[in-house]
Amino acid sequence: MENFASLLHGFGVALTTYHVMLMMIGVFLGILVGVLPGLGAPNGVSLLLPLTFTMDPVAAIILLTSMYWGALFGGSTTSILFNIPGEPSSVATTFDGYPMARQGQATQALTLAFLSAGFGALVGVILITVLSSWVAKFALRFSSPEYFAVYFLAFASFIGLGAASPLKTIVSMGLGFAFAAVGMDTVSGGLRLTYGFNELLSGISFLIAVIGLFGIGELMLTIEEGLRFDGIQARVKIRDVFKTIATLPRYWVTLLRSAAVGCWMGITPGGPTAASFMSYGLAKRLSRRKEGFGQGEPEGVVAPETADHAAGSSAILPMLALGVPGSATAAVMMGGLMIWGLNPGPMLFVERPDFVWGLIASMYLGNIVAVLMVLATIPLFASILRIPFAIIGPVIVVVCFIGAYTVAGRPFDLWLALAFGVVGYLFKKLDYPIAPLVLAMVLGDKAEDAFRQSMIMSRGSLSIFWSNGLVATLMLIGLALALGPLLSTMLGRVGKPKGSSVVA
Amino acid sequence: MISRYTAEIGTATLTAGLGLAAVIGALEFGIGWGDAGPESGAFPFYIGLLVVAASIGTLTQATVGRHGLQSVFLHKEEAKRVASFFLPMLAFVVVARLLGLYVATALYLALVMWVQGKYRLVISVTSGIAAAVIFYFVLEVAFQVPLLKGPLEAALGLY
Question: Which residues form the DUF112 domain (chain A) (predicted)?
Fold first, then answer.
């Protein structure tokens, strides 16, 4: 009940005209970046972040999270109408959403997608409301070794649960840590890894990396594939919307299962993309109408959308309560919190309850605003995609570079963004995962601090990571996850070859 | 035409190089035990080693499985498309460093629209300048975020 009172207080913080207006702006910009190729949630939040440095943290986080919701919804719109996923996490929505739209059921597909997405997000937010202060209280007992173990666990789960090759995950993650180490060493205050370049003295900002990797890299990939927008005319008829709403309860099993999958993948750093694929796979396997999947089965829209948004919103939970973001976008937002002078983690609940609960309350409101706005603006955004790429492409490029410059006002960052763009293009083409790199850049200093402080506490003995039940359990789970792929290939060689059960 | 195998090898060599750079850079700052716990090079040193090791692993995997990687990584047609996008972007960054972001924006948008979009020159140039002016008002006036400026802004007295 304590949480409920805090939540009501949070609604008091969030429900001002100014904040609701910010929510609408955020959602609008979010749908825009979600719809445009090359711009997505992590990138959109990175571009907007420098403009919020002067804002009040509560207002700023409301703007950014609303943008996140908007981007998730925008990604589904293009998946259904254009067969182009605006976001990696809405790839699974194209499987059945686009066929539905081609059969003249665009309104039904969009309504189902948005409503089930809204449902998923709501479940995620309720989970945050119920669990966050409990997790934060638990985490107050953590000291440096436990923190390092949590970070270790987060990165290990990328290796163990990710779809990409474990070696490539390690490369991507390690590079993230290395980039984070450039510049000032937060423990000793000395400089390192600058190789004599003045430009590297202040380090490499993770925002530049995100803008390059996700924005410019993604654009290059879009261009290479040759852009074709075979859009489907969509005019949302109010009557169809209500008819579709009436059919939604039929999918309650899928909704609940997908929300559960999404929440789990969001809290562990599996992320929304993995969640939506997994949920789609489960729905297909368990459905009575298996053969309809891929040809416009409504359940095939409900399942990935619910999981995508449940994961997207529940990724905020570990970010707030532990300081370990569950997705690339959450990582960017967490970086933002640190720039605003807030320290994500359990102390945030003690020091800034107004911020935490205002944010949580705004997540309820923001998602409702997002569902309504996205339904109302489909025609507008569908027409944006009909603008020729010779105009929209360069505009996105300019926005990315201007965004990169506004991070710190350093001309050198323009080159960095371009370099990260090339790396992002190569990595995406060769199936290197990018999220671990971003997460490592955001968490690099914190993980290193935790490690070094643990070493100081133990006078250099690694045994501190086995010194009590809590830290030992965390480390063991982490090790099991990290070594999981290795063990399973070894077991696979010894035992009989199993049918592949790869979870995307 | 580039094969997937070549691309895998190239990228893994690049990541190994970056890892090695971290290792070498870290050695300069000490990787042992100092007065205040581990020295500041220790963490980057081991991270760098990890990257090198994983890159070598990827190289080995690619070499062992090279028969499976003969698929085409980049067609000539695709390469042309990427180049037609990348080169103007590169030029944009170079011009932005010399003349500032606003001038670069106007030039870049106008040229891409004119040359690649086949719009009329007047329309392209007007759009480019309009975009730069809009960016100016949104960023400098509304959000008070200064962008990189060049000689033109100085001549116009805009700071």
Answer: 21-439
Q: Does A189 touch chain B (CB under 8 A)?
A: no
Please answer yes or no on whether A398 and B109 come within 8 Å at the CB atom: yes
A-B interface: how many C-beta pairs under 8 angstroms?
171
Distance separating alpha carbons of residues A263 and A270, to the nearest angstrom: 10
Contact assignment for B51 to A401 by CB distance below 8 Å: no
pLDDT tens for A316-371 read: 888 888 888 878 888 899 998 888 888 888 889 888 888 999 899 999 999 999 99
Contacts with A429 from chain B: Cβ below 8 Å:
7, 73
Tell me: do B35 and B91 sit in the same domain.
Answer: no
Cβ contacts of A10 within 8 Å, gap of 6 or more:
A354, A356, A357, A358, A359, A360, A361, A362
The verdict on B87 and B147 lying in the same domain is yes
Residues B17 and B61 grouped into a single domain: yes
B70 and B83 within one domain: no
Confidence check: pLDDT of A417 > 90? yes
Across the interface, of A171, A397, A426, the residue whose CB is closest to B89 is A397
Six-digit token string for A254? 């899928």
Taking Cα atoms as reference points, which of A348, A338, A327 lies closest to residue A210?
A327
Q: Find the domain containing B60 and state its range.
A: 2-74
Structural domain ending residue among the three candidates B74, B108, B133: B74
Q: What share of chain B is helix, strand, coil (3-state, %, to 5)?
A: 75, 5, 20
Query: CB–CB of B108 and A398 under 8 A?
Result: yes
Total structural domains within chain B: 2
Quick: pLDDT tens for A449-486. 899 889 888 888 888 898 888 899 889 988 988 887 77
B8 and B70 share one domain: yes
pLDDT-based confidence at residue A502 (cuts at 50, 70, 90):
very low
Q: How confident is the model at residue A500 (pLDDT cuts 50, 70, 90)?
A: very low
Asked if residues A308 and A275 have their Cβ atoms less than 8 Å apart, the reply is yes
- The pTM is what? 0.87
The amino acid present at A221, given as its one-letter code, is: L
